[in-house]
What we know:
Elements: H1 3-10, H2 16-34, H3 41-45, H4 54-65, E1 70-75, E2 78-83, H5 88-91, H6 103-115, E3 118-119, H7 120-127, H8 133-142, E4 145-151, E5 158-162, H9 164-169, H10 181-187, E6 213-214
Antiparallel strand pairs: 1-2, 3-5, 4-5, 4-6
Helix pairs in contact: 1-2, 2-4, 6-8
Amino acid sequence: MTVAMTEHFDEEDDGGEAEVLALATRIVEALLFASAMPLSAEELARSVPAGVDVAQVLEHLIDLYAPRGVNLRLVAGGFAFRTAPDLGYLLAAEAEPPRKLSRAALEVLSIIAYHQPVTRAEIEEIRGVATAKGTLDILLEAGWVRLRGRRRSPGRPVTYGTTPGFLDHFGLDRIDDLPGLEELKGSGFIEGRLTKDLTVPIPDDDPDLRADEDPLGDLFTPLDDGEGPPHTADE
Length: 235
């Protein structure tokens, strides 16, 4: 237990209570360093002594690590240690080069993120071009896209949505942290004159199936079931 940690809590607590809070901080710190995935406050609260406010512990750790080489950040609805943004370049040479997505894959990923749950046919309608099955396979393999269910429509096509891994990889806490229309315009992603009816939907990655979705059921049924004849690939 560090002296600084105990002194921080001594400002508001006395005696044994400060010791308990310091112990809880060490427990949370250890769990976060050992976990490969972000942990929610609820998950962390299960391991700290009874009566401890885990939010207070997390707030202290965020402040404690703010000036250090790793920071505690809120990612994908949970907390995780991440390299300080200004030091990321030091690890670039050691990190495994990420798979570069093609423009088609980026477009498909963006459509899924903003329009989920969405079927392959709906993706193609939005893009205005056919989508190679391999494009979706790459996103599924990366762990950024998942199969949600089947649309209650002829052919019962599969619906796609994003995953917590998508949020983690792109440093997002929640799906609605994705930029809206004004932010996209301000960042230069959307240029030129825009049609009056152009909108950017508010993304929603609620894991529960919608009223027009059924469970996946038999995964051995072809995933393109109901999507029509084979398409010409866009890659």
